[in-house]
Amino acid sequence: MPTLAAGPGDTVPPPFSAAEIFTQIRLTSLLTLLLVIAGAVYLYGVHRLRRRGDHWPAGRTVAFLLGGLGSLAAVTVTGLEAYDTSLLSVHMVQHMVLSMVGPIFLALGAPVTLALRTLPPANRRVLLAVLHSRVARVLTFPLVAFAIFVANPFVLYFTGLYRATLEYAWLHELIHVHFIVTGCLFFWPLLGLDPLPNRWPYPARALLMVLSVPFHTVLGLTIMQSRNLLGGDWYPNLHLAWSDPWNDQVVAGGILWAGGEIVSVTMLGILVLQWIKQSEREARRIDRALDRADAAQQRAGAAGEADGGTRQGHPAGTRAATKITEADPPVRPRPDVS
Fold it and tell me: What would the pLDDT profile of 117-153 be if each residue is shown by its tens digit?
């Protein structure tokens, strides 16, 4: 018999509240273990860099641990996880964080760059080979990653797959991991902090981010206006006196719609800031190159004047005075040319 994630015969959960989020902590899932391992490995890499005297920005560590792993844990370890098979709206919050919020902060932590700076040479070569393999190039190509990212929720919610995730705990966990992986495939190449293949220019990245906004709007509105409940009779069979499945589905669609737009606009702002910073760095680089060229030209001119003065037997500083005091050589008349 399959293991159920929840079911009509299970104990009816108490009404959802903020207090329940902090009192129903679950630390037994596979995803929890993966989050702990990821955090420990990242901190170990930072420790190795600092031990050998190398610098690693504290902001990247905060982004990866608190913004990335912290946001993922907030929706998979707390009471939100306890209610994600009872309330579609709670599941939708999970969806947004796992597929968008968490991956963005993980990318800002630049874990691939950290790994390349701390791994032994042999392991570093293996990682680079994986990053530049044909599979990685295809999956991280922005249009391919965009198609996967956009198609995922439509396939999940408008097929029988979503109902299966409610019934089977192992599939439920797998979908959570799938959300995280597809979000990373989409956002990491766009942010471009790690040396991944298929790095597009910033205007193209911003355009791709803008194009993702309508899909969240369409999906959210479709769920809000649907005449069928997602998951079929799963939610009505829970017989929750404190929740109406139809109203909860409207809330869930609104969360997907508004949340998708908020995250997309925020991500667009991050890309614009990165674009501005890159332009400023490029301008400073060009200015430094021009300054170096100008300084080299001035040194070459000064050296030429000094060399010319010494060859004539006069100090370089007296050559101008000598020209003034010396008489001009006589000019021999030239015959007219007819």
Answer: 999 999 999 999 999 899 999 998 989 999 999 999 9
Query: Residue 331 contacts by C-beta under 8 Å, 6 or more apart in sequence?
Result: none
Sign of CA dihedral 57, 58, 61, 64: negative
Contact at 8 Å (CB) between 185 and 149? yes
CB 199 within 8 A of CB 224: no
Give Dmax (Cα) for the chain.
Answer: 122
CA 236, CA 230: separation in Å to the nearest integer? 11
Q: What is the pLDDT of residue 4?
A: 43
Give the residue among 224, 214, 44 at the shortest CA–CA distance from 36: 44
Q: Please state the pTM of the whole predicted model.
A: 0.80
Sort residue 196 into left (φ over 0), alpha (ψ -120 to 50) or beta: beta
Nearest to 151 by CA among 225, 84, 216, 221: 216
What element of type H or E holds 297?
A: helix 245-311
Give the integer Cα–Cα distance in Å for 173 and 167: 11
Q: Return the closest-CA partner of residue 104 out of 231, 201, 230, 193.
A: 193
Dihedral pair phi/psi, residue 315, rounded to 5°: -60, 145
- CA angle at residue 132 from 130 to 138, to 5 degrees? 100
Half-sphere exposure of 103 (CA within 13 A, CB side): 27
CB–CB of 246/83 below 8 Å?
no
Please give the full DSSP string across 159-185, using - where no structure is assigned: STHHHHHHH-HHHHHHHHHHHHHHHHH
